[in-house]
Amino acid sequence: MVNLLVPKDIEDKFIHFSYIPYDKIENYVYSHFWDIVVVENGKDAEVALQFKKLGTFIINVGEDRIDDLLKIEKYEIDHFFDLLIYFMEQSKELDALKKNQDLLFEPLSLNAKMASAYKKLSRITSSRTSIVIAREGLLEDWILSKTIGPHELFDFSVIQEEEILLNLFGSKNHLPVFLEKVKIVLMNCDLCSPSVISKTSIVASNGLFSPYASADEKNCNAKIVFHFQDKEKVPQSLYQIAGKNIVEIPSLKEISDDLPTIFRFTISALAQKRMNVNFNLSEDVLSNLKKFEWKENWTEFFRFCNSFLAGEVRIKNDLEEVKTLPAMKDYLKMISDDGEKQLLKKAMELYNGDKKQICEALKINYKTLIKKMKLYGLKSSK
What we know:
Layout: E1 4-7, E2 20-22, E3 36-39, H1 42-48, E4 57-60, E5 70-71, H2 77-105, H3 112-124, E6 129-133, H4 141-147, E7 151-155, H5 161-169, E8 183-187, H6 194-206, E9 208-209, E10 218-219, E11 223-228, H7 236-242, E12 246-248, H8 259-275, H9 283-289, H10 298-310, H11 312-319, H12 328-350, H13 355-362, H14 366-375
Parallel strand pairs: 1-2, 1-3, 3-4, 4-5, 6-11, 6-12, 7-8, 8-11
Antiparallel strand pairs: 9-10
Helix pairs in contact: 2-8, 6-7, 8-9, 8-10, 10-12
């Protein structure tokens, strides 16, 4: 929820938003961190501007223009704030997602096999050439950032070979990546030609290369990580160059016995971080996790955890009726919608339909609440 501080004499302009009114700004502005502060005059603006460097967004709705502040006419407040708060909430959700990805990474240490593999990955990538064999999704970019640090990533599944080679060896308009002292990760090398693998691996092992359209040799300080999904696709010549710098990342199926523990840890952490609630996980859910055919993807697992938080009851019921877990991407929307409806119904019961209390509890604004109630056919006496 966006924290909004507005002048008391015009608070009626903000009735559709969650806000705190002030008569004297100095009595309120120091007591909290505010996402948005609305001012009407230069005196209040002078106080509010002290917090601009902390990321507070300050808006002038008064008659006079104030330097460095965005001015909005009072008749435009509704539309402007709808848009502004929407984007701020989206930004907060993205920040939360990044933090939650950090939370997801922590449970990997609960499985010795998985933790050992990622630890070895971080160690071997300090060599000139290394090979990592991992199914799709288990070597995602956010995991690479944590295990090997800053790196340049090129994915053969989404970028043409010629474009990748031009980036690596340079072009007339771009300096080659090989000139920079960075780690280079080549994803999905199963999909590229053997000549590309041979060319890049020789450059890395020799420490010399010829820039694009040039016969002059340059030093190559880059370290290259070759990623394959299928170890059968790794050329023998690359094995010889990489030597012992090879690691296989276990699939989710291989650590199925630990998935209930990882799931419980992740759910608990997400609930406390995002919703400040605790969920009691049934033993049926935890035991069935071992049997499901999980896709080889940490992101899907993470999204499923979030969906579980939104609709645990629905999932419990479904798990009693099915033998295999449906595809997550097809299941997410149904779970989210059902969970959202159940959450609203529970809030309406707890707060006897008091919309203001419901908005505060669920951290949504008034307009969003009304929209969701109409969407799910929910009615309130208040």
